């Protein structure tokens, strides 16, 4: 993260930046946690539906794998709260923000195949295996584009100012922890 570039437009201390970045991260986690909780609840209820015993071995493997991925994603997205609670008032906010950001990124990476598997399973059961594979692949592709490619494109465009020159790297002593909002300031 130290090689990320940002425009030095905010007049804040490293601790103020860490507080702001943690607050922004928590807002992001509120959105993702809700989606993961809904997905997880949906997957949990599937095992108790009348049609579940009719699933073939591939569908059952997809179900179990997707359920476990959803659990892992939920765990990764809630870990920042546990980390913060464990290190509360120990002057560790910059480290908490950095680790929490990595946990959230890992959660998004795990969430991609969880979304893919859930779409694959539902479409496989309702329309057939081929349609399920196509829908699952499409879901994965959309996630990769929106969560991977798009941020890189936006980051590249924000790395250049109006004259087309790259922005400077963080100043000495400045926190390397950055949020997407830092690029907008």
Helix- and strand-based class? Answer: mainly alpha
- N- to C-terminal separation? 18 Å
* Major sheet attributes: none
For the CA atoms, what is the radius of gyration?
20 Å
Average pLDDT works out at 84
| Helical proportion, percent range | over 70%
How much strand content do the residues show? under 5%
Q: Count of helices?
A: 5
Q: Would you report the number of β strands?
A: 0
Shape: elongated
Residue stretches low in confidence (pLDDT < 50, at least 5 long) are: 172-177, 179-185
Topology pattern, helix = H, strand = E: HHHHH
Highlighted features:
185 residues, mainly alpha, 72% helix, elongated, disordered C terminus
Overall description:
The protein has helices at residues 14-46, 57-86, 93-127, 129-158, 180-184. With 185 residues, the protein is an all-alpha fold. Helix 1 packs parallel to helix 3. Helices cover 72% and strands 0% of the residues. The protein is built from 5 helices and no strands.
List the helices and strands and how they pair.
Layout: H1 14-46, H2 57-86, H3 93-127, H4 129-158, H5 180-184
Helix pairs in contact: 1-2, 1-3, 2-3, 3-4
Please summarize what this structure is.
It is built from five helices and no strands. With 185 residues, the chain is mainly α.
